[in-house]
Amino acid sequence: MGVLVSLTAMVLVISIMNSLNANQRERLLAIDPHLVISLDGPAPEKTAGRDQKNKILEFLKTKNAFAAEVEVRDLILKTYEGRFRGVEARGLPAEVFQFLFEKMRQLSKKNKNYSFIPDQIPGRAEVNLGVDLAYALQIFEGEELTFISPEQLVLSVTDSPQVFKVRVKNILTTNITDIDSHVVFYQLGQLQRKKAGDSSVQNQIFVWLDAPDQAPALKKILKSELQVDSQDWQERNSSLFFALKLEKLMMVIFLGMGALIAALSLISVVSLLISQKRREISLLQCLGFSKTRTQNLFFSLSFVLGSLGIVSGLAFGIGLSIYLEKFPFQLPWKIYYDTSLSAIVDPWMIFAVAMVFILMLIASSFLTAKQVLDITISEGIKKSV
């Protein structure tokens, strides 16, 4: 029973974690660019800068990639009540907004409870901001906000900082923690223009691919052919994916400890049986059973008991996982980023878990059956007399 419960729990948890990781990856790749190219060197307003930018964009078109020049700013947001928060402001062209809206609509079709960005492009001096950021600073749609450049904080007391005011067009939900809590969107060219010497503003090119996994290969091509530095989505979100892998690993370790306890309980049960049947075992030896044959008998008994638990655990675990995959359990969308609890069965992972359990079963069965070697024929004869 212990092996059954522990194996069922491990298969189910691994399948659920696979689904959570896949959903997180799908949402991230729908919004976050697959490749980010920094426009270093001359400013894009200058001739050399424009030529380099146009050359990159033309090259990306040949790769069937959707690319656009964007503006990324590090700003300090201040509310009317005096609350502050550092944010990343992304200036996107109108076509990029439409592209993202379409991506989010596709996600919403797969998951009816999925909340997507409202298709309202911010206008002049307007911004869209994430729901978590709005909740933390108690911001509402239509409210006026103030943006301050970080460089303004190091001015002398005689200089007054330059600020610009914006209005909240929409509070959006992407179901991506980093974006909903730290990013502000505005339409490129509709906010205060970059000033000379403002290092908090970066001009970049955002790239989306039909196959996001091809981003590392495209990065190498850009470096070799155009001498352009870039970052793919795996590098930009390495900490997130490492955390997801670590979370999955820790869950497997803790459930594996439960499986180890179950294996020890199996050893205890069979060891108790051997201790109670020492006289019968010695009599079997009197009847001609060798110690090796007797050891194999109890090894088979222990292995069969454990195998029943493994087979039953795999059946229950896979069955529950497939049921969750077909009929996801709905969760409150106001609390959880994932509005449904689903599962994805990974055959290779289940095979690896089954192999580990079988190896543990073989080891425990061997250690248990080895106790038979200590029983001698004389024990049965003495107790009989």
What is the fold's blueprint, element by element?
Elements: H1 2-31, E1 35-38, H2 47-62, E2 66-78, E3 84-92, H3 94-110, E4 126-130, H4 131-137, E5 144-148, E6 163-172, H5 177-182, E7 183-187, E8 201-208, H6 215-226, E9 230-232, H7 233-236, H8 238-276, H9 278-286, H10 291-326, E10 329-330, E11 340-341, H11 347-369, H12 377-384
Parallel strand pairs: 3-7, 4-6
Antiparallel strand pairs: 1-8, 1-9, 2-3, 2-5, 2-8, 4-7, 5-6, 10-11
How would you summarize what this structure contains?
The protein has helices at 2-31, 47-62, 94-110, 131-137, 177-182, 215-226, 233-236, 238-276, 278-286, 291-326, 347-369, 377-384; strands at residues 35-38, 66-78, 84-92, 126-130, 144-148, 163-172, 183-187, 201-208, 230-232, 329-330, 340-341.
What does this structure look like?
The protein is of the alpha+beta class. Strands 2-3-7-4-6-5 form a 6-stranded mixed barrel. The protein is elongated, with a radius of gyration of 31 Å. It has 2 domains: 162 residues, no CATH class; 207 residues, no CATH class.
